[in-house]
Amino acid sequence: MNLYFKRVYSYQMKPMKYIFVSVLLALGGIMPAMGQTNTGGGQQPPQEEKNKIQSQSTNMNENLANPVILEPSRSAQSPGFYRGQTETLRRAVDFNKYDAKSWLGYYKAERYSYYTKTSNDINTEQQSELDKIVDEMSQYVPTSYEFNYAKYLNGNHDIRLFGFLAKAYEINPKATELFDQFVSYYELTGDAVRKTDWCKKLNESGEIPKEIMEFAYNLLVSLDENAVIITHGEMDSHSSFIWQTVKNHRKDVLILYMDLLEKPEYREKKFRELGINVTASPYTNKAAFVAEFLQKNSLKRPSYLATTVAPDLIRPIQSKLFLTGLAFKYSEKGFDNLPVIAENWEKKFRKEELAKKIAQGSVSAKINMNYVPGLLLLRDYLLSKGLNDKAKATEELALKIGSEGGKEQQVRTMIMKK
Questions:
Q1: Closest CA to 326 of 313, 310, 308
Q2: Could you report the per-residue pLDDT of 304-334, keeping only the tens digit for each?
Q3: Global confidence as pTM
Q4: Torsion of Cα atoms, 114 then 115 then 117 then 121, to 10°
Q5: Are 117 and 90 within 8 A, CB to CB?
Q6: CB 3.0-4.6 Å disulfide test: which of 5, 156, 205, 236 passes with 23?
Q7: How far apart are CA 327 and CA 305, in angstroms?
Q8: Residues in CB range of 101: below 8 A, 6 or more apart
Q9: CA Rg value for the chain
């Protein structure tokens, strides 16, 4: 029987055995896509303008935003936060056109203000605004680390702009925010050796929290042998790449990072290797693309979606998706997924980091919310087997995760309605 979470926010629905997957959105379990720590230097203005800036500095508002802007997956900030930073950093660059750090902060804040809880897609109008910022940077700070990084980031994984990424690294090889970009670039270009090298650098940098590394391990063990999985963003994709390339774990699994699938050459290469042809485009209709891919690929290999993907991609095919832990397996015929969830939780999952207390509202806490659907299904399964003590412990873990993710009341409501 296919089990989904019911809509916990709809009081009109009666308790059901079928559980609707949009709980992931209601619980805030959708993972932000990317981000690291920014470092870099600045461009120097002409001497006469530098003197003018210095003479006016006492009149400048000293409460400017910090130009170091972390990406959503590192800061767990809302679009509203970034909009506020955008306004302040725009004033900073208007005051000093040669302040490279503020330029990069301004660009990032503008970019991340467009992200939503479930998508990092940027529309044509928004891209035009970002292009204008980068064009201005090219006028005032063209040789800076900040301009080169912004130029590459603005290309949305355009491999033709790799020279800007390489230049940024040449200027500041300690900038760990570049490491994710190199991993994605070498995944796109199919250079397995260099991809492994950069996965090692990313792993050693400490940019990915231990909780998320444990999450990625558990994501991979949720899958059948020789599986193919579509992941949501850099945090779940790159941590999974690290497990494969650096730690030699689940190398049989093919990980398809959703953002990279928007690149036609990469997508077509991967699908040729899989022996399938998908006509829908992820750039124009992601939901249709995902549905067609899963339907065709499932005939050849076990096919999954990570629980971190946007609910809009899940809803059209929810009757064919079966939770196995931290992934949904696609199946036309269906299967009993409860024993699979129980085996994964009890025999395969690592839980050392999950058992520890973590900061409420942190990125790790939000990503850990993806454990809750499986835990509540496991609780019911254990109760059906008369294992009440285990069921109680499972419920308490779900509530702990809910509390740390800022959704304890929602989890309690779901438990009461079951």
A1: 308
A2: 999 999 899 999 999 999 999 999 999 999 9
A3: 0.85
A4: 110
A5: no
A6: 5
A7: 6
A8: 40, 41, 42, 67, 68, 146
A9: 23
